[in-house]
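Hello, quick one for you while I still have it in my head. I'm working through a protein record and want to make sense of it properly. Would you mind checking whether the tokens look sensible for this chain? I owe you a coffee for this, so here goes:
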Amino acid sequence: MMKRKGAFLDPPKILVLGFALIILAGALLLTLPMATVNGKGLPFLDALFTATSATCVTGLVVVDTGTTFTLFGQLVILALIQVGGLGFMTFATLFAFLLGKRISLKERLLLQEALNQLTIEGIVRLVKRIFIFTIVIEGVGGVLLSLRFALDMPVGRAIYFGFFHAISNFNNAGFDLMGEFRSLTGYVDDPVVSLVVPLLIILGGIGFIVMNEVYEYRQTRRLSLHTKVVVVTTGWLLLASMALILLLEWNNPKTMGPLSLSGKLLSAFYQAVTPRTSGSNTLNIPDLTQPTLFLIIFLMFVGASPGSTGGGIKTTTFTTLLGAVWSQIRGKEDVVLFRNRIIYDTVYKSLTVTMSGLFVVMLVTMVLTVTESGKDFLMILFEATSAFGTVGLSMGLTPELSPLGKMVIILTMFAGRVGPLTIAYAVTLRRQPDPFRYPKGRMMIG
């Protein structure tokens, strides 16, 4: 019995259960009459979908956030976004700090799992830094957006809008209050919105470990392999995708065609950033060309970086696999990045994460082709990848989902935020190493 109890309290099980309970609590709050403008509350399935999307910082919505919810309902969503983005264990640690409690070894192990850290060394100090970074970045972003929105609406409303969108985008959620599912398309060529929001998304997506190392660089004069890979991969993906979007959408009369040169550059930058994994947009997604949509699907699948507020298989996973492929092509045995040999466990885990992600996306796409029969295949694939990558971009399918389709997307968003591996570890028995090794086998590949 003791072993079963211990197994039940493994970090992966606690993380899965914790996120599930937060989602359920949020869903119940959104069903209250005071949560919606019509005074009836959301139907439970729609409330569950919205709460899952907010807690898993996705941004897919079945009802319009700006026109459906009251201030109470919007604040519930905002709270779910903040807790979901930073992680409930991070908030639990904050409350422990405020109450003067000591952080136990068990809680440190949970934080290690939640923040995807290799060790528990310095984990409490990192949590403190996470809150400082979050307050400063969301605060500065909120002020800048409030000043811009004040030109279009009353000051009080502008401040609320500014901080709501700052928190939503820093946590890579993508919820907006503009109404009619417009997201930020009204600011497609606005330099303030089109620069501030993507910078919030980038900072939220690179991960707190990277931010902490960059912050300490003046004292340490060193960056870890993790930080180097994250920064370089993020930079290359951003530049390459921005160039491709410009090339593919330059003359599209429904998107960039009518824009000035600065508008095209700003919109391409925004749309290159947002699949990593925010979900807000300044270009209307259904109007994009098919090559651009396929590029966005790829970017959504890769996603953000470990220890961040974003989803996807992560930039480090993508780069590790590229390194492994390049090593095989060159006939090298070791995978080397920045003059560091990557251990085989990391390569195997990267392959497992990628294949698990592909399996989830393929399975969800196949199921949705049945539940949402008659819908365009690219639209379904786009929606499935967006849910798995916790992105929130949509070609318009989400509000039209059947009840079964909504449940499929809810489960996909949950798996994407918690991670397929974490869920697998949570539902299996305690992992133990094999007591023996099998003989080596050979077979032909390729």
